[in-house]
Each structure stands twice: as C-alpha cells, then as structure tokens.
Hints:
Elements: E1 8-15, E2 25-33, E3 36-42, H1 43-49, E4 55-65, E5 67-69, H2 88-103, H3 106-122, E6 125-131, H4 135-145, E7 148-155, H5 166-179, E8 186-192, H6 200-213, E9 217-221, H7 225-235, H8 239-245, E10 253-257, H9 265-272, E11 275-278, H10 280-285, H11 293-298, E12 302-305, H12 310-313, H13 318-333, H14 341-347, H15 350-355, E13 373-377, H16 389-395, E14 402-407, E15 410-414, E16 417-418, H17 423-440
Parallel strand pairs: 1-4, 5-6, 6-7, 7-8, 9-10, 10-11, 11-12
Antiparallel strand pairs: 1-2, 2-3, 4-13, 13-14, 14-15, 15-16
Amino acid sequence: MPAESATAVLSARWVLPVAPTNTVLDATSVVLAGSRILAVLPTAEARTRYPGVPETRFEQHALIPGLVNAHGHAGMSLFRGYADDLPLSTWLHERIWPLEGRWVDAAFVADGTALAVAEMVAAGTTTFSDMYFFPEASAAVALRAGIRAQICGPLVRFPNAWSSSADDAIHKTLALHDEYRDSEHIRIAFGPHSTYALDAPHLERIGVLAEELDARVQIHLHETEAEVAEARAASGERPLDTVTRCGLLGPSLQAVHMTQLEAGDIERLARHGVSVVHCPQSNLKLASGFCPVAALRNAGVRVALGTDGAASNNSLSLFREMHVAAILAKAVAADAAALPALEVLRMATLAGAEALGMDALTGSLEPGKAADMVAVDLSGVANEPVFHPESQLVYAGGESSVSCVLVDGECVFEQGRHLRQDVPAVLASARRWRDRMADGGAQ
C-alpha cells in the first residue's frame, strides 16, 4: 500500500507483534490503512514518514495482537457459579445437563453469548471459538459485537433442543457454513462433542465433509482419565485411536484438553499437524488432569489457549489463562524455563489463530493483517516497575489494565466502555435468567 493510504498511527511505549519476530519493540508505531495494518516501525520513523496522519499515543502501554480464545461455550456464561466444586462427571450429569435440558433455547444462548462476549472483549479477546447449542444465535451476537468467531456446530447423537439427531446437527451445521462462507468475521466449524457423544460413522462423515469444505473440526479429547478408561472398556481403543481410525487426525483438527497422553501420542499429534487447545483453569477446577504443554511444544505440536466455558472456569479472561498456563507448565515439566512469557503470549494469539485457520487475517501485528489489537496500560501499581512488559502481561494479570481494544481498526472497547454492546441491557438479561433458574432450576 502507498504511504498516502495511511489513515492512523498508533504509537506505544512497547509493541509485541508476536510475528514475524516474537519479541518486544520499544517506542514503536503500528500504522493503519483503514482496517488493515500498513506498517510496524519505530515511532520516530513513523512520524517522519506519515507527518499528516492522525496519531494516537499509548504512553506506558503495551500494544499486542487481539487475543484468541480457542475454546469455549459462550452461552454457558449464564451457568457461571451454578455448580462449583464438583467432580466432572457429577457436574455434567447431575447439574449441567439437567439444567440445559430445562432452560437452553435460542434466547438463552443469545443472552449468554452476549454476556460472554462483553467479558471477553473487556479482557482483550478479539476472536473466540464457540461450541454450543443454537450456534446461529452465537454467530449473530458476535457479528453485532464486531468481533471474530469460529462457531462450531454442536454435534451429538442424542436429541436436544437444537437438533433431533446427529444427522440433523450435521445438516444444520452445513447450512450455517453456507450462510457464512464469505465472512471474515464468522467461520463455521464442525464440533463433534467427543467420541462418546458421537458414533464412528458420523465421525467419519465429519472428516470427509471437513476435507471437502476446508473446514476445521473441534472435539473434546482425552479430557479425563475416566473418559479414556471408559472408551477402552466400551470399544477396545482410546479416543485418540478412534479419531485416527475415523480419518480426523490432521491439520484441521483442534483437540481440546488432552490431559491424558501416553508414549507415542505426542509424536503422532506432531506428525499429523494436529492443534491442541489447552484449557488449564477448567482442567484444574474440575481435576481433569494436566496437559503436557512443554512436551507438546518441544515436539512441534501447536498449542493454543482456551478458557472453556464460564460454568467450569468462572472467568473468560485469557490473561488469567496465560498466567495459569505459564506457571502450570513449569510445575508439570519441573522446569522453571518451560514456558516463557513471550511463548505463552504466542499461544494466546497467533497459535490460536493458526489453529482456527485465521492466521492470514489475525493473531499478530504484521503488514496486511487486520488491525486487531489491544492496548494494555502498564503504568499502575500492580505493574511498575516495568523491566520486561511480557512478564507484566503474563504474570501480573493484564485484563484490568486493558484500555483499548480494536477489531479491523475500529475501537470496540475503550477506557471501560463497550462501544458495540449495550452492557446494562446484557447484565439485566443475565440477572433475569438467574432469577428464573433460581426459582425453578433443576435440583
């Protein structure tokens, strides 16, 4: 793009572009041409090259790519805190599934997703992946909020409020894919819940369709020891073996959780280019196990970060997820250098975009990419003195310091104000759902 096409200059004390170099750039500017990044260069040079272009100065701020939440269930934000401190099986079978059966419909999902999106945007997330019922409602909310989303059609074999069967769920997902095939903001993926929630023939069909459509597939896989043991007892093979046999193992697969891995599994994931989505806080809260993040990354496996749903995490902040991921990886690997701050930032940005197939568009601050970025104020008492801004972002907790969030160069959150969502209305809806469920919820 020619210099005259520049429309804005964003100058920050520090810029962390993630790519093409994953480092910290001092006194650097990101130059925009409308919705795209035109250049990343030293601020002094930017002021000389673009003297008439409006400049926004982020003093004592770090400018980073928009965060990518690679796994969640946004509608479940309305269940936040409903069933805490329970084992996964009890939590799921005795509390969450009965509650979903009673309350979940398109309006519930729209209101829950709006609440989730407001929380995520305020914490710097500009792209999220969602797997939940009524995905068309989630997609509509994301569009109105002005952010990006991978919407996974929820595929299960049993009837539910959204689909009557696995075939019906696949049919509806295909229709949604057709509706959004040209969208830069919404990508439709296949979301088989798990190998225990879907039979092998349908998993095989999903693999064929995903290849034909160049679509991604996201699945909960090896989440708990019990899941693996029950699969072995029922079929004689582990879930990873099942998805391999069904033709799903490949670069389009997003394997969520992966806390139970055996010798040879990591090499197999690396060889097939599978992306692993790590959800450390949810796994810890539900005592599901530990994903061997350092070993996966050392073997060349792409690892992205997800929050999971607010019903099993309570927070949808990727800053908190980065913090826990970094310190947990060190403990699991017994190595304090196992996951440096800059690498965990990459997991929360570019690695997530790569897993979702959106890395040509977002995930790093590079010329030609969409201007999705977050300004984080590091001047507060919880951050000073700043020796290494990446350490403050990962270890000091950054969501409360987010001052500006842009998507396509448009500000969607600024100084505590949401510019694309009516947050008082979102909160009022959440409280109405709380009151309804408290008066007549499943016990």
